[in-house]
Design brief:
27% strand; 160 residues; 60s Ribosomal Protein L30, Chain: A; alpha+beta; two-stranded antiparallel ribbon
């Protein structure tokens, strides 16, 4: 009998949509990227890297809505990279429970929900109905390393 390589259907679905998971980023301070407890995987906030470069700036100042949405999508891809690193496969995800989106923005910028849609829409594209989630989208004056967006998440996962 030969071993059949394990497949990761979510990764395959993302690839079909033109998305490649990045390498999971190492923490930049005193925390861990993920914590699994009671059937939930909590993923620390992830920053947006596009073409290997951190997306920096503020919405309403020097980052457009479209750039913000792309940054949020990049955060979502990094969230999924962290999930895959922690669980071995995205197929262990039963549901995306919640996303928290933090958008570096001016006091007059009010389209934080539209920016966060970049992450939300990727989760639905990856997981279908199970990708629909609760969410917050909060404007903040500054994020770590000058990032334009940061997104954290909670996933319901199957037991090992």
């Amino acid at each position: 009998m030969t071993d059949t390589p394990a497949t990761d259907t979510i990764v395959d679905r993302l690839a079909a949509l033109g998305h490649v998971l990045p390498q999971a980023a190492a923490p930049v301070a005193a925390y861990v990227p993920t914590v699994e407890a009671n059937g939930l995987l909590h993923v620390s906030g992830q920053l947006p890297f596009v073409d290997g470069k951190l997306v920096t700036g503020r919405l309403g100042e020097d980052v457009s809505l479209e750039q913000g949405q792309a940054a949020a999508q990049a955060c979502a891809l990094m969230l999924l990279a962290q999930v895959k690193a922690a669980l071995g496969s995205l197929d262990r995800v039963e549901r995306v429970v919640k996303l928290g989106a933090f958008i570096s923005s001016t006091g007059t910028f009010t389209d934080q929900p539209k920016v966060a849609n970049g992450a939300s829409e990727l989760m639905v594209a990856a997981f279908g109905e199970a990708g629909k989630h609760a969410r917050s989208a909060v404007g903040v004056p500054v994020l770590p390393l000058g990032a334009a967006v940061e997104v954290d998440a909670v996933f319901a996962v199957t037991a090992r």
